[in-house]
Amino acid sequence: MDTKTARSRREVPIDSWALSQLREHRKTQSEHALLLGPGWNRAEPFLDLICERGDGGPIDPDNFYSAFKRFGRQAGLDPRTRLHDVRHRFGQTLTEKGVPLVAASAVMGHSGTAFTANVYLHYSPRLAEMVTDALAQAYGR
């Protein structure tokens, strides 16, 4: 399946918990595919999707969006929250956790750190606290 840009195809680091969840999902998915037999969508380029609609085929974007809104309501998100807002929050969280901008930019698939900084990162109370902590540490306070 083609990606939007060449940088869209990349390795994304995940922790051991997420890896175990993906392995369990893949096991369940394989069992479901065996049960469906010929009803499992094996047509290229949709072979081997992690997120699929239940028969191995791609999820319709409108259905995905509807599910996102439904799960968002259940999780208590503001109803105006868009899926892309989650991506912005992800970038902001990486920064607030001290991940270097170059690493955040690479994980998000951006062409450079300037784009990541200009579009995805916003000054926050947590970043202000990091600045004051760094200054205090630098000056031995």
Number of helices: 6
Instruction: Report the C-alpha radius of gyration, rounded.
Output: 20 Å
Question: What is the overall shape?
Answer: elongated
Structural class: mainly alpha
Strand content: under 5%
List the helices and strands in order. Answer: HHHHHH
Mean pLDDT: 89
- What ranges have pLDDT less than 50 throughout 5 or more consecutive residues? none
What gap, in angstroms, lies between the N and C termini? 54 Å
Give the count of structural domains.
2
The share of residues in helices is 55-70%
- How many strands, which pairing sense, and closed or not: the largest β-sheet? none
Number of separate strands: 0
Give a summary of the structure in a few sentences.
The chain is built from six helices and no strands. The chain is an all-alpha fold. The protein starts with 15 loop residues before the first helix and ends with a helix.
Write the layout of secondary structure elements.
Blueprint: H1 16-36, H2 61-75, H3 83-96, H4 101-108, H5 113-120, H6 125-138
Helix pairs in contact: 4-5
Give an overview in words:
Helix content is 57%, strand content 0%. With 141 residues, it is an all-alpha fold. The longest helix has 21 residues, at 16-36.
